[in-house]
Amino acid sequence: MLAEAQRLQTLAAMGIDVYLLRTRGAAGGGEAAAEAGLPLQAPVAEAKAESLALVVACAQGGDADTPRLRTTLPLVLGISATRIVWIEPDVAGALAPPPPAPAYLALGADVARALGEQLSTMQQKSAVIAVADAPHACMDNGLARRALWQALKPIARRLHGRTG
Length: 164
Known about the structure:
This protein has about 160 residues and is an alpha/beta fold. The protein has 8 helices and 4 strands; from the N terminus they run αααβαββααβαα. Strand 1 (about 55-60), helix 4 (about 65-75) and strand 2 (about 85) form a beta-alpha-beta unit. The longest helix has 18 residues, at about 140-160.
């Protein structure tokens, strides 16, 4: 039998995410992960630098689901809402150059093309870039919502310092 710390290190080396159940009195729930030398989850990792983490390119256009996505996305990724920058294309569909960030999320095919035009080759090489459907499709269609959550997994790994 492996000790808990060795088991967690082995699973991390294989690229398996270990999820811990939360309890009501638990402060962080990451004691075993800290002992194993693994990166801690959102509350502790967020206490590091409050820098820009994610740029979301999204055509708002009066979409009723965009505010719901704006409140849900930081919770899902386990980061502060202040670390997410939302940018929108202009009337012609062009985006302003986005700020440098470790991750980019484009919601909609047209917005993804516009984002790709604005990102330099170095930004595209070093950042995690994910594309999903527009917010109304992601929140109304179960299959599109699942695709969005699957697209967010590499972003979450990058933001919390994990690879794989």
